[in-house]
Design a protein that fits this description.
Length: 169
């Protein structure tokens, strides 16, 4: 299942309820954090959730969650630096091996359940672009990301405006 980032950390009962249901009612075993700007709407951060449905039980179904961070220090866009199948080769290999790497980490249910409101916005990699100006993406990548983020914000503002005007049901 593909979901936007906010579902992983949104405050309030709805977001927390979704995360609780995923962790307790399903074997939510893998989370793939995708690069910003590659989804249907520019600037949207998306994630792929891998889980197995389990028969109804009072027992917690998720014992551990493996998180693959393919977002930090990865710069992709819909137009200039598109994702390709080969971009997922490492993920696919480690998905099957379940081996800890720089980008792939395991978190127990106990660790996850102790996070404030079951926040699943999990990251551990240091964002190199924030450390040194020399590590910033090239100007064309930066400008594409800025345009994507501005277009996403404009789309969200339009949606809110239409809703306020009563144009959306």
């Amino acid at each position: 299942m593909v979901l936007p980032d906010n579902v992983l950390f949104e405050a309030g009962r709805a977001g927390e309820g979704i995360r609780k249901r995923l962790l307790e009612g399903f074997n939510f075993h893998t989370l793939l954090r995708l690069p910003t700007g590659i989804w249907y709407s520019p600037g949207v951060k998306a994630n792929v959730l891998f889980f197995d449905r389990r028969p109804a039980s009072r027992d917690i179904q998720t014992k551990e969650l493996w998180v693959y961070d393919y977002r930090t220090n990865v710069h992709k866009t819909l137009k200039t630096k598109r994702l390709s199948h080969s971009d997922f080769d490492d993920f696919i290999r480690y998905y099957h091996e379940r081996k800890k790497t720089e980008r792939f980490r395991r978190f127990s249910y106990e660790e996850l359940s102790q996070r404030d409101k079951l926040n699943l916005d999990i990251f551990w990699l240091k964002d190199d672009s924030l450390e040194h100006i020399d590590n910033l993406p090239t100007p064309d990548v930066l400008s594409a990301e800025i345009v994507d983020n501005l277009e996403a914000a404009l789309e969200q503002f339009r949606s809110v405006s239409q809703e306020l005007a009563g144009e959306v049901e």
